[in-house]
Design goal:
Elements lengths: L2 H11 L10 H24 L7 H17 L23 E3 L9 E2 L2 H15 L9 E7 L2 E8 L2 E7 L5 E3 L2 H4 L15 E9 L2 H13 L8 H9 L4 H5 L4 E10 L7 H10 L9 E3 L2 H14 L7 E8 L2 H7 L9 E5 L4 E13 L5 E12 L2 E7 L3 H5 L19 E5 L7 E5 L24 E3 L6 E3 L6 H11 L12 H9 L26 H9 L2 H17 L9 H13 L9 H14 L2 E3 H7 L7 H11 L2 H30 L4 H16 L6 H12 L5 H12 L1 H13 L1 E3 L15 E5 L7 H10 L3 E3 L8 E4 L5 H9 L2 E3 L1 H8 L3
Parallel strand pairs: 2-11, 19-20, 21-22, 21-23, 23-24
Antiparallel strand pairs: 1-6, 3-9, 3-10, 4-5, 4-7, 7-8, 10-11, 12-13, 12-15, 13-14, 15-16, 17-18
The structure holds nicotinamide-adenine-dinucleotide and zinc ion (ZN).
Length: 817
């Protein structure tokens, strides 16, 4: 960590000395150090969204600070961390002064603290132990708080907490969040709703993958990702970050919402806000702790991070009497979960190869329990991360590198893949050596190349790399791509091992499909050949294939390549229905499911190809722009010379930057670059135009275009794409403007079970007709399509007066379009 951390540690370790044994001079010095450390941590956490110390360390130091201040009230500093909430707004944002301050919460860490909280309140209110005192208990969402001002039902302003007094104006950004209603009915004329913006685990992982692919910074945890995504100067960035919002509090109100906390929350829900379903009323500490246990149990499966449980006095009249301390309300407390940290040995670093050919290092750990879950793996991101640097080249973990044999601190946030938070250098073995990141692919032996400006190293093996090929195939059949029922990751691995499929087109020629369909798509011997050159690789390859065969019920001797190859060949001659684990019925179903997907919208095809930087959104943008497969191919081919030119200029410019110091060489490079642009052969106007057209598409820039053109230009890949296209009937997706459907421009929500089409299909259909499909019902919802088993969403829609129809009604509605 940074210097701040080390000072923090020293200050923290001063805990050995009880406050009352310190001299005032010692206390003063420690308070100064604590103020410095905590203020720096606050800035890093709240302003930069990149914490430099763990939350547990932060909380510990803050408690230490409070303990010293209690012992030496005279020494309390003017800039005491105890009096501060968050951090002042960052430059660049407009500032918003909160009419009612946005505060922090005091913390409880032990069960006993809860009874004490109850007692404290009773004393303050002069209540006896017999008087009823009801609390709400709800999850403490680990995101960042947001204030939303509604005037006459219109969202007019959104602001972050900032330092509690002045926050950042993020109105444009908040408008991009689906959970936040733009307009509400039946609310007080002036109403400030407060709550938490957060990111789900799934969205967080997907975002980090996208960031890694794009060579951009990744986020340490969902909270930082949410904060970093909301606090964007360009709201367009926020639009592409899937943020969510729970409402749980309020500020300014022209009329009260209700008489109790719980009823007020219900009112917020009735306006169309998401409120947390785990909110309960508790009759005293015993029930509060029971709810704490329950929420703690649910924690791992919620799909988003929570870091504790918040208890609030339910009666709002009592809340008003209790009021506030400097930075916290007296009527609420946050009961924090124990830190999800643990120390263990790092036994090995394995490299996994993914669809985009990235080599991802994974730490294999001596299993250890972290926050109730046994952890044996942790992600290591890339070679810089292992070396102690982040994606911008700045030091992380104080520049400590990670080595095999290290004693490491594992950090886990909810469900999210664990990370290495720290390395104990004192336990590092004397003979330890820095980890050497492989420069060849461990799966296929090809060179692993790290390109200028890329944080990851990628296998250059392309389709000969079994890891890349299977990952590409898995992506191809995934939900948002071809979504073939009965063909998941496991089946793909098996079919690949059988050499039945090595590229997407093979899926349409599986043996047993037709009378004559016993085609063997790839010769196992050929696949082995590459690996066989390398004796070490060969063993791995054979073991892998033999393992697959054993799963299929065919025992083989993995010492003997000829035997493995022969066994695969033999098995592959049989139709799928005769292979163990498939059977007539499931093979038939699979074939039917495959057949059904031959007719497919263009955006899915583009997405399914698994091209770097081309996710669902980009694929849809492309499909809308080009309309047909043929138009897309023509455009990409036409743009190819311009793309090559663009890359050449980029390379020359990079070199120029690298040589910035050396005048003479720079001039030569500049000359070379000018030649690239001006020298013969000149670019055809058509190429220039095609390239310009491509990078002008909303949401597509040069980076996406480079990768897209390259994917279609590379002969092997293009061959594979063409073979696939032969099998498909690729459909246009309707442009929303052109759609005359009654659902065009409407916001729809699907709930319950659909019988006649799957949810993803219904969604695609609706979107093709120009509708927007949302996951939750709010005041913005125009139409709810509710199948059997519809629950809270249907009730909410009824409350809000949202029109609701069933699946048949939906099919009728879209029948003519
Ligand atoms: N690692 C670091 O360097 C660092 C630095 C500063 C702060 N922190 C972390 O942040 C915490 C302090 O930050 P804080 O001032 O935001 O306090 P807090 O997170 O402990 O509690 C207050 C916040 O809880 C949130 N909250 C979530 N669910 C809520 C609910 N249901 N009801 C009410 N509020 C809810 C609100 O945003 C509120 O502002 C520390 O405990 C620490 O873990 C860490
Ligand atoms: Zn490879």
């Amino acid at each position: 960590m940074t210097g701040g951390k080390d000072e923090g540690k020293r200050a923290g370790e001063g805990q050995d000395l009880a406050p009352e044994t310190l001299s005032p001079e010692q206390a003063q010095a420690e308070l100064a150090t604590l103020a410095k450390t905590l203020n720096a941590a606050n800035l890093a956490y709240h302003r930069e969204d990149t914490p430099e110390i763990s939350d547990a360390d932060y909380d510990r130091l803050k408690r230490r600070n409070a303990a010293l201040e209690a012992q030496f009230p005279d020494l309390k500093r003017a800039d005491s961390p105890s009096d501060q909430v968050g951090a002042a707004p960052a430059d660049g944002f407009g500032k918003v002064r909160h009419d009612i301050r946005m505060l922090s919460l005091s913390n409880a860490f032990e069960d006993g603290d809860i009874a004490e909280f109850d007692q404290r309140i009773r004393r303050y209110l002069n209540l006896s132990d017999k008087d009823p005192l009801v609390f709400t208990a709800e999850p403490k969402i680990d995101g960042l708080s947001l204030s939303l001002l509604y005037e006459d039902g219109e969202l007019t302003r959104a602001a972050t907490r900032g330092d509690g007094e002045v926050g950042e104006n993020v109105t444009a950004n908040a408008r991009m969040i689906e959970d936040i209603p733009q307009r509400i009915a039946g609310a007080p004329a002036r109403m400030e709703v407060r709550g938490e913006v957060y990111m789900s685990h799934a969205d967080f992982e997907a975002l980090n993958t996208r960031q890694t692919d794009a060579g951009a910074r990744t986020f340490a945890n969902p909270r930082n990702a949410a904060a970093g995504s909301l606090r964007q100067l360009d709201a367009e960035v926020t639009r592409h970050r899937p943020l969510r919002f729970f409402a749980y509090a309020w500020g300014v109100l022209s009329d009260p919402l209700a008489e109790t906390q719980m009823k007020a929350i219900e009112r917020l829900a009735s306006f169309g806000f998401e409120t947390n379903p785990l909110t309960r009323l508790c009759d005293g500490p015993k029930e509060m702790l029971a709810q704490y246990r329950l929420i703690e149990e649910r924690r791992a499966t919620l799909g988003y991070d929570i870091d504790g449980v918040v208890y609030k006095v339910d009666d709002l009249a009592l809340q008003a009497r209790l009021g506030f301390r400097a930075t916290t309300p007296r009527w609420a407390i946050a009961h924090k979960f124990p830190a999800e940290l643990a120390w263990t040995w790092l036994e090995a670093i394995d490299i996994q190869v993914g669809r985009t050919a990235a080599l991802s290092p994974v730490a294999r750990l001596t299993p250890v329990t972290v926050g109730g879950v046994v952890v044996s793996n942790a992600t290591l991101h890339n070679e810089d991360y292992i070396a102690g640097r982040d994606s911008r080249g700045a030091e992380i973990r104080g520049g400590k590198d990670i080595r095999v044999g290290d004693w490491v601190q594992v950090y886990r946030a909810g469900d999210v893949i664990p990370k290495i938070a720290d390395v104990d250098m004192s336990k590092r073995p004397d003979n330890s050596v820095p980890y050497e990141f492989p420069v060849t692919c461990p799966e296929c032996g090809s060179d692993a190349i790290r390109e200028e400006g890329d944080s990851v190293r990628r296998c250059a093996g392309g389709l000969i790399c079994p890891a890349q090929a299977t990952e590409k195939l898995k992506h191809f059949v995934s939900r948002a791509a071809f979504d073939i029922e009965g063909l998941g990751a496991r089946q793909v691995e098996f079919l690949y091992a059988m050499c039945w499929i090595s590229e997407p087109a093979d899926i349409f020629t599986l043996p047993g499909r037709d009378q004559d369909g016993d085609r063997l798509t790839a010769d196992p011997a050929k696949r082995l050949a590459h690996g066989l050159e390398d004796p070490e690789r060969r063993v791995d390859l054979l073991t892998g294939l033999a393992e697959m065969l054993r799963t299929a019920g065919v025992p083989v001797d993995d010492e003997d390549p000829a035997h493995v190859v022969a066994a695969i060949r033999h098995l592959a001659q049989r139709p799928l229905a005769q292979i163990k684990g498939w059977g007539e019925k499931s093979a038939d179903n699979l074939f039917a499911a495959i057949e059904e997907r031959r007719r497919i919208p263009l955006n899915r095809v583009i997405f399914a190809l698994g091209i770097r930087h081309v996710g669902e959104v980009v694929a849809t943008d492309l499909a809308r722009h080009f309309n047909t497969w043929e138009a897309l191919l023509t455009a990409l081919d036409a743009a190819r010379p311009a793309q090559e030119r663009y890359l050449a200029v980029e390379a020359a410019e990079a070199e120029e930057r690298a040589l910035a110091a050396d005048e003479g060489r720079r001039a030569r490079v500049k000359e070379a670059r000018d030649k690239v642009w001006e020298g013969a052969p000149t670019l055809e106007d058509s190429a220039r135009a095609a390239w310009a057209d491509l990078i002008d598409i909303d949401g597509i820039g040069a980076k996406v275009a480079v990768s897209l053109v390259a994917a279609f230009a590379q002969p092997a890949e293009r061959g594979s794409i063409n073979r696939l296209a032969e099998w498909l009937d690729i459909r246009k997706i309707a442009t929303p403007e052109a759609s005359s459907s009654p659902v065009a421009g409407k916001t729809l929500v699907f709930t319950g079970t659909l019988v006649k089409m799957t949810r993803p299909e219904a969604k695609a259909r609706a979107e093709a007709l120009g509708a927007k499909v949302s996951g939750s019902v709010s005041a913005k919802t125009d139409l709810l399509i509710a199948g059997p088993g519809a629950g809270s969403k249907a009730r909410k829609a009824a409350d809000l007066g949202v029109e609701t129809i069933d699946e048949d009604g939906w099919l009728n509605l879209i029948a003519d379009t």
